[in-house]
Amino acid sequence: MKLSTKYQQIILASSSQARIEYLESQNINFQIRPHKIDESIIKKKKLHFTKIVETLAKLKAQSVIENKDELVIGSDQILICESKLIDKPRTINEAKRNLIFLRNKKHKLISSVVVIYRDEIVFKETKEAILQMKNISDNDIEIYLAKNKETALNCVGSYKIEENSKYNFLEEIEGDLETIIGFPASKFIERIKK
User: Fold this and answer.
1) CA separation, residue 5 to residues 70, 71, 111, 131, 192 (Å)
2) Under a CB-based contact definition with an 8 Å cutoff, are residues 126 and 141 in contact?
């Protein structure tokens, strides 16, 4: 199906600043509608990690549909370390525990984008990245959290890759930036721009 956006409204089912900035950088006209999904319900199910992230991306898109002629983008990202799914922290103490757990370990980010048009999935992309958290000190973690509370509470790993040049916590082992920020949408963008 041709994904021309000439007569369609694009909706982003997210309030993620990284995803908003990504679409803005591509000169895409879109509206923001934060999704209405309780992610914890899906994460509690005994699903394969890839299935979790794809299901959440799809449900998020479906949760904001108001008009069948809209192109709705849903996305999700999960972080896995030592076969354990790490959730967004609810408190700074949880963020600290996350960072201590990730310290000196490799972890995997699985990111998915699902686009729905007229009740059908017209685009889906799921990609993985692997990062290594350096052996950062407790003091570095404390300083980081004191200066970055909002980031810590809004990111699955309690960090943003975009801030790595400043704090130097992470090494990229495998994967690209769009996967690391949780929005593998470049192929979709290419299709709608054609």
Assistant:
1) 9, 8, 24, 35, 6
2) no
Neighbours of 173 (CB within 10 A): 12
DSSP summary character for residue 114? E
Retrieve residue 108's tokens.
Answer: 């995997």
Residue 95's φ and ψ, nearest 5 degrees, are -60, -40
With 50 as the cut, is the pLDDT of residue 174 above it?
yes
Predicted local distance difference test score (pLDDT) of residue 120: 95
Domain formed by 10-193, architecture? Alpha-Beta Complex (3.90)
- Under the phi-then-psi rule, with left for phi > 0, alpha for psi from -120 to 50, and beta for the rest, what region is 51? alpha
pLDDT digits (tens, 9 = 90+) for 31-59: 999 999 999 999 989 899 999 999 999 99
Separation CA 80–CA 147 (nearest Å): 25
User: How does the average pLDDT of the chain come out, rounded?
Assistant: 92
Torsion angle in degrees (nearest 10) through CA of 131, 90, 42, 70: -90
pTM of the model: 0.91
Average pLDDT, integer, range 140-164:
90
Please count the other Cβ atoms lying within 10 Å of the Cβ belonging to residue 27: 8
E strands present in the chain: 10-12, 31-32, 71-81, 84-86, 106-117, 120-133, 170-174
